[in-house]
Amino acid sequence: MKNQSEILLESGTNELEIIQFKINQHVFGINVLKVKEIILPSPATPIPHSHPHLLGIIQLRGEVLPVVSLERALGMEREAEHDSSQDKFIVTEFNSKQVVFHVHNVDRILRISWDKIEKPSNLYALDSSNVIGVIKEKDDMILMLDFEKIMVDINPEAGIHPSKLKKVENRERSKKRLIVAEDSPLLRQLLADTLVAAGYEHVEFFENGRDALNHLETMVEQGKDILKEVQLVITDIEMPQMDGHHLTRRMKENPHLSGLPVIIFSSLITEDLFHRGQALGAVDQVSKPDIDHLVSKIDQYIL
């Protein structure tokens, strides 16, 4: 029998489950789909001259995994009264890699709708560039972290960069128009730089699926021929307000938008999620940060 997370994502209902955890008294959340397991901390072997956010490496079921201190990554000082007996390791998998994050406590699992996640304010005490969304839950403010950015800060080579593009064939791309839904400001800029380097000069970016869908629906209301105005949509999965799966579903349900190809570009392209994206109507899916593969897929569907 399928669990609730599978059912929610397969149907594209714009809902997700998050694991709530703490660093000092700050409350954070991580998408359950990124989490493989939660374990008790074990001593990490330090790596000489490694990044200061990296505690070291551990061996888990035959795999050697890096351990990252979220406390350090977020620029927070450990409180003197902190009870380390509640500390946990969150073992994650995204961008086709496994990483362990050291946190101070794991509280519970919550199911929420993406439209309950608000865009963070620049006035938050923590570095807002590491926060992709805020959830108001009773007396708590749960901050959704940009784990991809945290890892790129530690290892820039793990991210998207125009230099990763192989020599591409000289083909006419400049007149093709793309729409990209991506919530991370860092990734929006990197994607913009990379797509321009590949020859795609007309790219319009939106912070979430809802804004992208509203833009497309407005074009329909204005009587524009969508398939002439836009050639392809690229979307992340995890986004506040509306996720990429729900965006894809809504587009395929709209007769004016259903013919527009959608490519999902996400850190969460597992085998199960790939099948769900297919079922919702995505023409293809690419795992971040494989930008070279993304460009070849764009070429495949619109050139």
List keywords for this structure.
alpha/beta, 303 residues, single chain, 16 strands, 27% helix
Layout of helices and strands:
Layout lengths: L3 H8 L3 E9 L2 E6 L3 E5 L14 E7 L2 E7 H4 L14 E7 L2 E7 L1 E9 L3 E2 L12 E7 L2 E6 L1 H8 L22 E5 L3 H13 L4 E5 L2 H13 L4 H4 L2 E4 L8 H10 L8 E5 L4 H10 L3 E4 L3 H12 L1
Parallel strand pairs: 2-11, 5-7, 12-13, 12-14, 14-15, 15-16
Antiparallel strand pairs: 1-2, 1-8, 3-6, 4-5, 6-7, 9-10, 10-11
Helix pairs in contact: 5-7
What do these coordinates show?
It is a single chain. With 303 residues, the chain is α/β, with parallel strands linked by helices. It has two domains: 4-156, OB fold (Dihydrolipoamide Acetyltransferase, E2P) (Beta Barrel), CATH 2.40.50; 159-302, Response regulator (Rossmann fold, 3-Layer(aba) Sandwich). Helices cover 27% and strands 31% of the residues. The strands form three sheets. It has a six-stranded mixed beta sheet with strand order 8-1-2-11-10-9. Strands 3-6-7-5-4 form a five-stranded mixed beta sheet. It has a five-stranded parallel beta sheet with strand order 13-12-14-15-16, with helices on both faces. Strand 4 and strand 5 form a beta hairpin. Helix 5 packs parallel to helix 7 (244-253). The longest helix has 13 residues, at 185-197. InterPro entries: Chemotax_regulator_CheV, CheW-like_dom_sf, CheW-lke_dom, CheY-like_superfamily, Sig_transdc_resp-reg_receiver. Residues 177-303 form the Response regulatory domain. Keywords: Phosphoprotein.
